[in-house]
């Protein structure tokens, strides 16, 4: 198997600067030397891709947002370790949701302010597989969807001679994780404007990172299996899954 493989991908300028900001933070804060090396390799590759556009713009606003998101995400996982789901936990989750909206707006501002639409970058195989899984979930959930982007990505995958993982149990789990994440995000949206700290709201707020962390572990395992050049690096302190969490279905047992 060829080591350190990647595939070409095309990102909006805002998405590139957002990823550069995240990788800068990881270079600063990730303690594991191997994980930091992977983040630095992706940062170098993405920096070259951005420099090739000849566009100069400020990554500062996205860096500021991602710094705050980093701190808040550490806080909600600390609450999970301590089983402390009080108003401060709820406030942190709600702030994360608002910041993600600001992050999307910042990316859109970048896109509107530069004279290019897409930037060619190197993408890890786990991210490619994840995008295919997301596209399949979207197509299954929307009968009116005409999105065939995932099929195009799959064709590119095969054109580079990369082995078929799309009928594997592992990929099926990744697709399921993305489907559950979609469901949980919808649930969270329904609770965001409700001031009451109901058990259902707390369960939804916990589920969004429990599912996403499981999704990241699945992506990482795929990256290792496929000798991907890049993979998603996480830096939070590990925590035990809740006793009533179904790790296969990615939901609380009673839900």
Shape: globular
Task: State the share of residues found in helices, binned by percent.
Answer: 55-70%
Mean pLDDT: 92
The secondary-structure element order is EHHHHEHHHHEE
Outline the fold blueprint.
Layout: E1 6-11, H1 13-29, H2 33-51, H3 60-82, H4 87-113, E2 119-124, H5 125-141, H6 149-159, H7 169-191, H8 199-225, E3 245-246, E4 251-252
Antiparallel strand pairs: 1-2, 3-4
Helix pairs in contact: 1-2, 1-3, 1-4, 3-4, 5-6, 5-7, 5-8, 7-8
Report on the architecture of this protein.
This protein has 255 residues and is mainly α. It has one domain. It is built from eight helices and four strands. The chain has helices at 13-29, 33-51, 60-82, 87-113, 125-141, 149-159, 169-191, 199-225; strands at residues 6-11, 119-124, 245-246, 251-252. The strands form two sheets. A two-stranded antiparallel ribbon has the order 1-2. The longest helix has 27 residues, at 87-113. It starts with 5 loop residues before the first strand and ends with a strand. 29% of the residues are buried. The model has no long low-confidence stretch (mean pLDDT 92).
């Amino acid at each position: 198997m060829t080591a350190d493989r990647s595939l070409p991908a095309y990102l909006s300028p805002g998405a590139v600067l957002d990823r550069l900001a995240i990788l800068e933070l990881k270079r600063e804060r990730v303690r594991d030397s191997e994980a930091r090396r992977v983040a630095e390799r992706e940062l170098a590759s993405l920096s070259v891709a951005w420099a090739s556009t000849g566009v100069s713009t400020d990554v500062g606003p996205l860096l500021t947002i991602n710094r705050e998101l980093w701190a808040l995400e550490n806080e909600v996982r600390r609450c999970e370790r301590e089983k402390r789901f009080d108003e401060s936990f709820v406030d942190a989750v709600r702030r994360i949701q608002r910041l993600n909206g600001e992050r999307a707006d910042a990316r859109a501002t970048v896109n509107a302010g530069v004279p290019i639409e897409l930037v060619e970058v190197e993408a890890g195989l786990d991210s490619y597989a994840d995008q295919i899984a997301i596209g399949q979930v979207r197509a299954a959930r929307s009968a009116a969807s005409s999105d065939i982007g995932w099929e195009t990505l799959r064709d590119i995958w095969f054109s580079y001679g990369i082995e078929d993982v799309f009928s594997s149990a592992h990929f099926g789990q990744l697709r399921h994780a993305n489907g559950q994440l979609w469901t949980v995000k919808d649930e969270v949206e329904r609770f965001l404007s409700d001031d009451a700290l109901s058990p259902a709201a707390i369960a939804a707020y916990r589920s969004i990172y429990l599912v996403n962390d499981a999704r990241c572990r699945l992506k990482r395992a795929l990256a290792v299996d496929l000798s991907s050049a890049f993979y998603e690096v996480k830096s939070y302190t590990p925590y035990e899954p809740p006793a009533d969490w179904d790790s296969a279905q990615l939901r609380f047992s009673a839900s």
